[in-house]
Amino acid sequence: QVQLVESGGGLVQAGGSLRLSCAASESQFNSMGWHRQATGKQRELVATISRLGTANYADFVKGRFTISRDNAKNTVYLQMNSLKAEDTAVYYCNLDRIRRYWGQGIQVTVSS
After folding, report:
1. 3-state class (DSSP) for residue 30
2. According to a count of CB atoms within 10 Å of the terminal CB, is the N or C end of the chain lower?
3. Which residues of the chain have pLDDT under 70?
4. Which residue in 85, 68, 88 sits closest to 22, CA to CA?
5. Cβ–Cβ under 8 Å, residues 66 and 78
6. Buried-exposed string 26-40: b where 16+ CB fall within 10 A, e elsewhere
7. Phi, psi at residue 10, to the nearest 5°?
8. Beta carbons within 8 Å of 73's beta carbon, 6+ residues apart
9. Per residue in 63-83, pLDDT tens?
10. Cβ atoms of 34 and 94 closer than 8 Å
């Protein structure tokens, strides 16, 4: 069973930065990524990174968020800069292998 442990969330003022981390118990994957779900809204894709290191971003985070990984630590990061109030959500890490695995989610709150 793949386990994903997220960390780094919290409360930040608009314009500030946070870095989320997702430590995986599995080193073999096709891709990993981050989704988010705001209250009353559907879960949406934020960013993904492939096994080969190719990153993709949702339009609403391009230029502000950066996804990266440390293969030695089986960890994926999401650096979030220039945060906006609308970035407030629970952020979920995912790992895609034969199926998709989810982390437990971590709250990010941006105060305006």
Report:
1. coil
2. N
3. none
4. 68
5. yes
6. eeebebbbbbbeeee
7. 150, -160
8. 23
9. 999 999 998 999 999 999 999
10. yes
